[in-house]
Amino acid sequence: MRPFLRATVISLLLLMFFFQDSVGEKQAEKPESLQSLFIQRDISAELKFLRDLITQQGMMLVEQQKVNTAQASELSALKNEMDHLKKENAGRTKVAFSAGIGPPLRILGPFNSETNLIYKKVLTNIGGAYNSYTGVFTAPVRGVYYIRFTGSEYGNTSNNIGVNLYKNEQYLLHLGENGSDGLAKHISSGVTLELEAGDVVYTRLPAHYVLWGGSDFRTTFSGFLIFPM
Which residues are the signal sequence here (predicted)? Predict the structure, then answer.
């Protein structure tokens, strides 16, 4: 029972006892006037009011206890669900990586043939599935992965910018932009892939294209495991 409600009920009970004592005293005495009769009636009305109020407060307390019990049950069920999810998640393989080309500041390319892009500046590599020496991500478990890459270029007046994405030896997509006007350009894309354990994903710079390299993470390669299968 809440302290405020408990104090209210106690106060009401004390008032009832006080009025009941007053009524008893009045009844023990012989009514001396019409005024004393009205006083007794007023006291009886007050007692009835107090009884009704105490009954109402008691009903409110019962309902509040029901609500408290229901809320406690809901909180207990939520805690059990969270504990279950924590245990389930603790046993899952965790995979996430993000890397950039890295310094020094420079224009990569153009090359006469398609060239693997190697992102040496690693920001995140949870699970160790990304190789910063080869630029290749290797799926450690079968599952659905999200792969994202970005590219940029600045100050070039003769070549376009672009990135090719591969899964194993399979060419998946090309992302490019006209970059020969000398203006700063940025490109980005992402895909969801179903990969088997051991599948590799990597990017390549198309022949005669350029990209900006540096430590500012304008040209990046990232990915993470959404869920295993």
Answer: 1-24
Contact 113, 119 (CB under 8 A): no
Distance of CA 219 to the CA centre of its chain: 28
Question: Taking the model in full, what pTM does it have?
Answer: 0.62
Residue-wise pLDDT for 172-202, tens only, equals 999 888 766 767 778 899 999 999 999 999 9
Q: What is the C-alpha to C-alpha distance for residues 63 and 70, in angstroms, rounded to an integer? A: 11
Phi-psi region for residue 214, left (φ > 0), alpha (ψ -120 to 50) or beta?
left
Neighbours of 137 (CB within 10 A): 26
At 113, which helix (H) or strand (E)? none
CA–CA gap between residue 49 and residue 62 (Å, rounded) = 20
Query: How many CB atoms are located within 10 Å of the residue 20 CB?
Result: 13
Report CA-CA distances (Å) from 172 to 168, 192, 203, 226.
10, 11, 10, 19
